[in-house]
Design brief:
homodimer, about 300 residues, Rossmann fold, 2 domains, about 45% helix
């Protein structure tokens, strides 16, 4: 499990490559939520999401093997693009396994950063088989999107930055899918902060919530939530960290997530992806007072579907 | 016509009240546009648009009469909300004449800032008659949304800030409706900058373009452009300034404006109103090289119409 030193080292290691993302606030949002809020803008991170942190850390930690044989992953979401970007920063190859039905915008992002795509059938088995096959052919180093300590230490740096700048934060809202961001936030807060950490999860993908309550890791399949980055179930390495260092998992309905997204647009003019809106929705739902923070985890979605007329 | 001193005084006068809005850039946008761009984020201004600058300046210049009898305007757009907000900052009343069919979000904004609304029939004659009637009853000081030198000096401060921070800007794109922002930008640049200034206007409301070419002020009525803040025709005080100190008026189709809006969302994650997208669209259309700037004039629109599903 990452130590305080691992998180600080990750922060130093990736600093020359990533954005130290801005924080901001909104008087109107404070009126609506009842708290004194700071938003951490990871939608303004390179590649459009916090995933650049973990990917860059994992690539740098494994720099030599990455330079020799490249890195590989089978994430179709933000991690795929982030890993392609991170590999390109050190001149390494990135092999990205994507389902044949992946959105065009996700494919374009991976291509834009020079990732080498192999398409497969759109199911988990085909992804893993294809990844395993490409890995054997290339010798590339597998970097899992969240179930990986280098990734967790990298994602922890977002919370590390936020709490270094704002040590008075009492409550921190963090979206949870596979748990890379949330387990990193929980550890960063344990070592460097004094906040209560809340995982924010769609009711339609409530594995973290149910696992947290029962103490046993749960798997959710084929969720239809609009928060598409949060459909995955908690990783094996992420679950125990979350169980130990997170205060609560807050469930959000689809309507609450959509209202959080609209409210974020209205009050901050920041365009975030629906996954990030779970944090905003949880803040509006809980109406906590005092100094609060929200990790806006990313801003990647297909905007062309929104017609002005 | 405002002098260099008028603009500097306005900047000092309003500084304690307004946001010194941030500037930012996007590597991806630079790739798409061919230039080296700085965005000035007036969508992050108080009240959600640059209009807070002019309204605050006009209220402060007329502080005594405003405190005695209030201020009045018949703008249904961002100026109405901005004037209500500015008046509230000095404890003055603001009378806002609004058409009975004004969007709910605009009415809510004026009410939020404590504006006293009088509704009228939705046509220019009714607006002016009603404003005149309320003005006689109250003795309030009329503050026109753009055809007013205090307003022009106030709006000029956005460009003044941008050029003070970035004196190397060679090309500056500015949306044009009534011409308050554009005439202010042109004067600020004339006194403090070295850029070419481009007015950015919808083809469906091309009065500035046609007036600029013929030398005679033109009136456009009932435009159906999506850039709803730019439907108005140039004011009498704005036209000669624009004729003298602006390099060119660039016309944008509705499709180009919508593409500019989408591209801004994708590359900067900033949520702007369609009027602001004309500047983005003009940058993409002209493909100028060198150091360029875009004034993102505002971020107010009804976001609830965008459904996530």
């Amino acid at each position: 499990m990452p130590t305080a030193q691992d998180i600080e080292s990750a922060a130093q290691r990736i600093a020359p490559f990533i954005n130290r993302t801005p924080s901001f606030s909104s008087l109107r949002f404070n009126e609506l939520s009842g708290g004194d809020y700071i938003f951490k803008g990871e939608h303004l991170q390179l590649t459009g999401a916090f995933k650049a942190r973990g990917a860059m850390n994992a690539v740098l930690v494994n720099k030599e093997s990455a330079a020799d044989s490249g890195v590989i992953t089978h994430s179709s979401g933000n991690h795929g693009a982030a890993l392609a970007w991170a590999a390109s920063q050190v001149g390494a190859k990135a092999f990205i396994i994507m389902p044949s039905n992946a959105p065009k915008s996700k494919i374009a992002a991976v291509e834009h950063y020079g990732g080498i795509i192999t398409f497969c059938e759109p199911n988990l088995e085909a992804r893993e088989t294809t990844a395993s096959k490409v890995q054997k052919e290339t010798g590339a180093h597998l970097i899992h999107p969240y179930d990986n300590y280098d990734i967790i230490a990298g994602q922890a740096t977002a919370t590390y930055e936020l709490l270094k700048d704002n040590p008075e934060i009492e409550h921190l809202f963090v979206p949870v899918g596979g748990g890379g961001l949330l387990s990193g936030a929980a550890l960063a807060n344990y070592f460097f902060g004094n906040a209560k950490i809340y995982g924010c999860e769609p009711e339609l993908a409530r594995d973290a919530h149910d696992g947290f309550l029962t103490g046993k890791r749960v798997i959710v399949n084929n969720s239809d939530t609009i928060a598409d980055g949060l459909k995955t179930s908690l990783g094996k390495k992420n679950f125990p960290i979350i169980k130990s260092y997170v205060s609560q998992i807050i469930l959000l309905t689809e309507k609450e997530i959509e209202n959080g997204w609209h409210t974020c647009l209205e009050t901050t003019k920041q365009f975030i992806e629906p996954s990030a809106a779970t944090g905003v929705a949880a803040a509006l739902k809980t109406q906590l007072t005092g100094k609060c923070g929200i990790l806006l985890c990313g801003g990647n979605m297909d905007v062309r579907k929104f017609a002005l007329r």
